[in-house]
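Customer escalation, tier 2.

The customer says the design service returned an amino acid string that "doesn't look like it belongs to this structure." They asked us to rerun it and document both sides in this ticket. The original structure tokens are below, unchanged.
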């Protein structure tokens, strides 16, 4: 559980306060003689780090440490650096390959007051508030480095300070799963029904119901983020979540162009594959339908209307799926070929349990979305 939470938080762009520690009930493998003693040692480092952050102290290290190799020792001595980074060697192999270590943060804690530093529980609330304030100030400072902004480009500064939706770790994980990522928040992937129809087999229900040929269907999304954390999500909750668009935004023209190019490149990989029909392969190179149902919440994308309009201008029909959490966006949506609103539960309690929405007024949004759909 600890390893998974550590991995998920890191993939979502979080920063570690201190290196994750793992305990072992086997006393022979304990560094401090017992599981409890190991926890006390880690706790002291953690609380010391909180005190350092509360005082506004910054990391002496560049934060680019990986596999125990520190690029910027700062005030740390070589001996203390080697000692601290040695601790990270006990991380599991997967963590070593995927994560940057945070051993430099442990050194900060020791510099701040040693491993025996303690803090009252009553003070933790103030410390955490100060930590958040310090982090925001640091992000603003880092965002302003190298910039000389005038009043005319003040609007650009606000956009430039926004972070990208796809973190480096998430980009690597999604790429390994077969996603072709576009810009900083979009993606495209081959559907298994597309592969099946290329081989002369049947298509998905859209083919059965509406005559849409699966081998000419491009599955994509202009937003990998979502406002729900559904229990049945096939992304296993590694995709970003949010109730509003707060990331950098790519233009719809670029998204569509790269989506078509990436889709065609994936189709090309089936040339000469056993069982693939030559005529269907040729047809598949020209997408005639776009299913905006890959993952995330496509309707969250601020330029969704422009994107759909571009699809239609390229003679590509549109199929947009949205969770019932954005009624205003549904009302403002210009005509699409097909609009689907997912209804995953029938009561407020079951919807909360199944979709696990982020909005507090999720039930009213759900009802408003269905009303908005009926008015389209």
């Amino acid at each position: 559980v600890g390893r998974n939470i550590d991995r998920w938080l890191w993939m979502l762009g979080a920063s570690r306060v201190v290196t994750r520690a793992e305990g072992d009930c086997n006393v022979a493998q304990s560094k401090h003689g017992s599981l409890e003693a190991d926890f006390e040692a880690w706790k002291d480092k953690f609380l010391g780090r909180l005190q350092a952050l509360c005082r506004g102290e910054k990391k002496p290290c560049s934060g680019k440490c990986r596999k125990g190799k520190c690029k910027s020792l700062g005030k740390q001595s070589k001996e203390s650096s080697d000692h601290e980074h040695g601790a990270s060697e006990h991380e599991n192999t997967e963590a070593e390959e995927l994560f940057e270590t945070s051993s430099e943060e442990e050194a900060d804690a020791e510099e701040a007051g040693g491993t025996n530093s303690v803090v009252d529980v009553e003070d933790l609330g103030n410390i955490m508030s100060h930590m958040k304030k310090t982090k925001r100030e640091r992000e603003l400072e880092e965002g302003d480095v190298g910039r000389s902004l005038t009043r005319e480009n003040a609007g650009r500064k606000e956009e430039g300070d926004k972070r990208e939706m796809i973190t480096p770790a998430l980009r690597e994980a999604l790429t390994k799963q077969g996603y072709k990522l576009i810009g900083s928040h979009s993606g495209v992937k081959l559907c298994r029904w597309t592969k099946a129809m290329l081989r002369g087999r049947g298509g998905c229900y859209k083919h059965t119901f509406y005559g849409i040929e699966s081998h000419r269907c491009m599955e994509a999304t202009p937003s990998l983020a979502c406002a729900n954390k559904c229990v049945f999500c096939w992304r296993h909750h590694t995709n970003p979540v949010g109730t509003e668009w707060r990331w950098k935004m790519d233009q719809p023209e670029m998204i569509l162009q790269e989506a078509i190019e990436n889709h065609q490149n994936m189709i090309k990989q089936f040339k000469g594959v056993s069982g693939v029909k030559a005529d269907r392969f040729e047809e598949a190179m020209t997408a005639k339908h776009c299913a905006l149902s890959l993952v995330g919440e496509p309707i969250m994308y601020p330029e969704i209307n422009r994107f759909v309009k571009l699809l239609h201008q390229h003679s590509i029909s549109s199929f947009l799926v949205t969770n019932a959490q954005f009624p205003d966006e549904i009302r403002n949506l210009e005509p699409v070929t097909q609009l689907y609103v997912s209804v995953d539960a029938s009561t407020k309690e079951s919807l909360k349990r199944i979709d696990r929405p982020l909005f507090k007024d999720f039930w009213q949004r759900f009802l408003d979305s269905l009303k908005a759909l009926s008015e389209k």
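Tier 2 assessment: The sequence is consistent with the input. Confidence is low (pLDDT under 50) at residues 60-117, 145-152. The CA atoms of residues 199 and 273 lie 9 Å apart. Sent an explanation to the customer and offered a walkthrough call.
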